[in-house]
Amino acid sequence: MKKNHSSDDFSVGGNQEDIKGQDNSIQIDEKDIAVIIKTGARDKTPVPITLLPVLAMLLSMLPGICRLAFNLETARFGIIALLLTGTVVFYIRFNLSGLYEKKLLLAILAISYLGSLALLLYVPSPELFSFWMLGGIVIAMLHDQRLGLLVHFAFTVYMGICFLDNLKAIIQLLFIGVLMIMLSGALKHKATAIYASIIILSTNITLAFILNNFIFRSVNGFNYLISLFSLILVLTAAFCINYIYSKYAGEAASPENTADNKEKDSGQADGVQINSDDIISDSSNLHELSQTGQAVSLVIQSVGEDGLQIDSSLELLCDKSNMLLVQLKQYSKALYDHSERIADLAFRAALEIGADSKLALAGGLYHEIGRIRDTGNYIEEGLAIADEYKFPAELKAIIKEHNIKNGKPSSLEACLVMLADSLEASIDYVLKNKGNKYTTEKIIDSVFKLRMDKGIFDACPLKIKDYKRLKEFFIREYADYKLN
Asked: What residues does CATH 1.10.3210 cover in the chain?
């Protein structure tokens, strides 16, 4: 970066030494100030999830304990259950933080896991009576396919180590379980559930036929009819559980949805009162109504030289009655409050340095919108939502770049959202874990210095004077900060 004559006309990334000055800041380990917001700055795993490995171990050892015959086999069952369930909990802890806000779903998933383990332990011939597969597919249908795959893999490994030494049967059960989970999306809907079930059942019969040397009669204890009907029961039970849960969840959310829909009948953009009915009926002004489930995002059409171009209005996106924000609030009140906090900080920081305050506000509100889809990678889901709802390119860049693992921020507004998000998480984390050992000013200084040393600001047009103003702004903001 070349330096111009005016000190205000070069980027921070081009002259780091001028910024560092005299280094009187504390040295905080990088892990303390990493982007912890992936788990909402929470470092406390819910008790039911924490206890799941212990409960699984006790359930596995229960027969031996009841018979007062605690031997090596009993210990082996318990230890393997503890290790495999610990792996599942580890995945949940670091990839599915949104699950913590859904107490009912958390309980259902824990019951599904332990129930499937009990079926695996206490129902004879698990290679034929495959009821234990229910847990993985229910988890995939209700929450996350990857978690469902992990659970199924854990149960298959457990069965292979503890009960079954038939490699062909293990391969068949592993493959069929993976297929069911991959088709879990189709199994949730009446229109496609039958077709998906036919694919699964026919694949199971075909695979068994191949593995049993093309013989249809019972071989090595394998019975085609029992295997077929077991899978039918599993698929039927999974469909019913998903249907009941979806119906209950929908009814639970309906009062809030009704209130939000009434609120959404009118909105205000650019100082003009807009009625949604008028917009929808005016086909010359509305090109598309983008809809996913109940979420509706109004889009505004503008005509350019290259034809039609559709962008979501930042005014409409920042309206608190926007259905995406309503969904975010329903998904997790804590995550919604966090997004509002980041949006407010980024908005006022943008005013401080003359950046686009409306874009910074929208960036803060939607920087973690991808979490509402519960797939583990909230950045990818956030970008998918942005494409569906025709977000402006600048806003999509913020969704991607606010987490520095996905690239350095390329705009001032992305930089502001990244800083607000990182500082909020870092200050919460350090104060929770290190008490009052460090002041917020010291923490902020260290975060800014670390970002500078890593060249995080190199790709955005942040000037030295703005760097200093931002640091002063955040120090003022957090001067009297106390943990909730």
From this structure: 275-477
CATH class for the region spanning 275-477: mainly alpha
The lowest-confidence range among 164-168, 254-258, 371-375, 386-390 is 254-258
pLDDT digits (tens, 9 = 90+) for 379-424: 888 898 988 888 888 999 999 888 787 778 889 999 999 999 988 8
Could you identify the residue written with the tokens 């980027």?
A: 11
Quote the pLDDT of residue 313.
76
Q: Which amino acid would we find at residue 289?
A: L
Residue-wise pLDDT for 88-129, tens only, equals: 988 887 766 555 555 577 788 889 899 999 998 888 888 888
- Phi first, then psi, for residue 246 (nearest 5°) are -60, -40
